[in-house]
Amino acid sequence: MCRVVAYYRVSTEGQSRSGLGLEAQRDAVAALCRTRGWSIIAEFTEIESGKVNDRHELTAALHHAKVTGGTLVIAKLDRLSRNASFITALQDSGARFIAADMPEANELTVHIMAAVAQAERKAIAKRTTEALRAAKARGQVLGNPNGAAALHRAAKGNTDAVRQIKARADAFAADLAPIVAKLKADGHTSLPSLAKALNAGGFATARGGKWHPSSVSNLLARMV
User: Fold this and answer.
1) What confidence tens digit (pLDDT) does each residue in 74-106 have?
2) What's the predicted TM-score (pTM) here?
3) Number of domains composing the chain
4) Cβ neighbours for 130, distance < 8 A, ≥ 6 positions apart
């Protein structure tokens, strides 16, 4: 079953108090969840103009979706903004996203972005090939005369890859730090107890699996 984190936005305090637009958004999200058998696990409401980039509730909703493995659902695409701030935040968060009025919009957007990226990669490859062909025609010697240097750079590439993996693991631990702190405050202080509480709360490991005492121990070690 899909776990839904709902995000609603109204532009003014007056709309929030009167429910103008807000109830319609809740109804739209609830209707989509009913038809697909999804469960709403959290709701976030923003009172902010669509022109404003800095949205605390949106950030909180994206974070909640990320740490629970949930999907962010909004009522309508126009509830986001008139600029690319949401897309940037969405890409950075890694959270899944669906709009109730256009459930396939996110997939379509991703496909378009992927197509553009693929076209650009092909264009770069073509330009590189043509440049090499032109250089060869001029009599320029191709290849790498510094083979040892190339090996050193390859080793550095492996080091960079390891560093990136570590950075992602550290970022994941930082995301879960406030969740773990709250669980500890609630009395879950042992590794088995924390693992059970994380699983019960729907918090997946970095690889999307279940928590065990050993994986909790590794997580805590990164929080030190």
Assistant:
1) 887 655 554 455 555 566 666 677 888 877 765
2) 0.52
3) 3
4) none
